[in-house]
Predict the 3D structure of the following.
Amino acid sequence: MTRLSGHILTLDGFVAGDIEFATAGPNRGRITRISGAPVSEPVARNSILPLILPGFIDLHVHGGDGRDIMEGGDAAHKIAGLHARNGTTALLATTMTAPAADLRAAFAAVAPLCGGAGGGGARVLGMHLEGPYISPDMLGAQPDFARAMELEELDRLNALAPVRLITLAPEIPANMAAIEILCAAGYRVQIGHSNGSYEDGISAMGKGASSFAHLFNAMSGMHHRQPGMVGAALAGARFAEIIPDLLRVHPGAIRVALRAIPCLYCVTDSTAAAGMPDGEYRLGRHTVTKCLGGVRLADGTLAGSTLTMIEALQNLIGFLGLDLLDASRRVSTYAADFLGLSERGRLVAGAWADAVVLDRDLELLDVFVEGVTIDHPHAG
């Protein structure tokens, strides 16, 4: 058994006390007990005792530590390690729009990590298929291999590694027609890389699409006579991704989304450049350059990010003024809720023992993935 003492963030707020993880037996890797007395957030934040929060969950990870999901090999293992050292305890390995053979190779490489702990890294929950079923008019930094939904191709990929999330452009007729089929089969579907209209977005949500990929980025913007995909998200979405690196989205736009979308949750959209010095890196079939805190294609197009989830939490609190309970939900609980994962994203008896330990300056002291500590948290 592992016991941690500090200020523990439960779903109802902080308690000052102990949290215990089982290290053996049938409950191995799970929280067995939380005990303590309720305390206010200001008391917890000002104490010398550590803060214990749910581990971060990132549903949009392309890379890190110099590696890219699409390159295959041991890249996913290295990426999971980098993100675990920065507080992420569970993630979705995210692909780029690519030819079918490239996708199959990437899926086959990630498959061994799905369904098992990553051996010193974040748990890989499955795959986020970001494309190829997107709009060729809204590629963003995606390579130009967009195509309409092919259910047979999706079945073949899912047989290699579990697809947990599909991003698509609903204005493409085959994509719109597939949404109900995909949702009935258990896939989570979100709207992204879309040049569709407001009406397209509302219709897609009516068919079961339930989130928006990196809100504001690579989607038709909002105008008062043409609300676009952004308008559909702000008007009707319960869930949506946001990248709070303060570069991809202006803080003012994030504040708008926070008021409109109840379960807005953070993702990094991280690339191989995360945790690395300035220079050139791979992103699918593209070469991208990290410089001045951003990642760009040769033409200047923003291409993913270098964000980590600990930085996302710090930005939500330090730049956007959220309290710690709200910010924690947006880097953990809401993403788990979106995927239907009741045993992650919260500190409660019976849940997986995924936790981050922070000091009062919100710097990482320790990270636990299913009860096992990660060496050297926040180590690049």
Notes: The chain has two domains: 2-53+345-373, 55-339. The first strand starts at residue 2 and ends at 10. The chain has a mean pLDDT of 96.
